[in-house]
Amino acid sequence: MDKAAYLTTFRTDTAALLATARLKTDPPVPDVPSCPGWNMTDLVLHLGGVHRHAARIVREQQREPVPILREDLGWLGLEHPYLHWLMTGQAPRDAPLPPEVLAWFDRGASELEHVFREADVDEPVWTWSSDKRVGFLLRTQAIEAAVHRWDAQLAHDATGPIDAELAADGIDHTFEYMLPARREWAEAPAGSGETYHFHRTDGPGEWMVRFHPDGVEVTREHGKGNVAVRGTASDLLLFLWQRVSASQMEVFGDAALLDRYFHLVPPR
Asked: Is 227 in contact with 252 (CB distance < 8 Å)?
């Protein structure tokens, strides 16, 4: 996907998340089932903070990680008590999502879109991955916005699929960057030869993931794994992000190994 495509999906998904967060519900703020312990306020605050962090990195052309200090959070543009809610995860469970928080989220998403639009995707900046470019942040933010838009809609039991091409790109991104990062961060166990085949059914895309004792090999190819999962790009991505069960897709082979996958690639 190119820069324009990422910006389009980012704008669409953040707008859809905001529209969902504005829906009136009873109780006032619904829980988000796919993000245990979070309600809609937590979700909006989390993603709004992520947007401002990414915008700050690009705008200031940061080349090294900058510590986020509790005593220096003015760049978030979030007033008390909402800043406290963001940093502690203590958003109230019995009050509507404040319009000030919704407006703050809207401003942050618009600012990040503008920053990305004006930036060169090849500009070097700090990222948590080996790809130290603005383009990596743009790609990551587009994918995260889509998944969290889905999370918000799940709270209303009215989810829409992730854009198919973004989802397929997100699968590549997950295997290339998130898989090794999650294994490193969690000090995940070595594999013992487990092989997984993921097959997209709504367009081209097949991935073989092999867990060896000395590392992980990911290839884009047709092959036979210990277990195979066939589904749309959206469903496959949501499965890899632990949003949906493989039971809603076609599974062939040793289905018990699907739980093992998340032992080998622990979620954050």
From this structure: yes
Alpha carbons 17 and 76: distance in angstroms, whole number: 20
pLDDT digits (tens, 9 = 90+) for 232-242: 999 999 999 99
DSSP assignment, residue 241? T
The model's pTM is: 0.95
Question: Cα(103)–Cα(17) distance, rounded to whole angstroms?
Answer: 13
- Same domain (yes/no): 41, 146: yes
179, 123: one domain: no
Return the pLDDT at 67: 82
β-partners of residue 198 are 207, 229
**Tens digits of per-residue pLDDT, 156-197?**
999 999 999 999 999 999 999 999 999 999 999 999 999 999
Residue 167 lies in a domain: no
Domain with 251 in it: 172-264
Q: Which of 32, 13, 160 is nearest to 91 (CA)?
A: 32
Given strand 194-200, what is the order of strands in its sheet?
Answer: 215-219, 206-212, 194-200, 227-231, 250-253
- Classify residue 113 as exposed, middle or buried by CB count within 10 Å of its CB (0-12, 13-18, 19+): buried
- C-beta atoms surrounding 184 within 10 Å: 9
DSSP 87-99: HHT---SSSPPPH
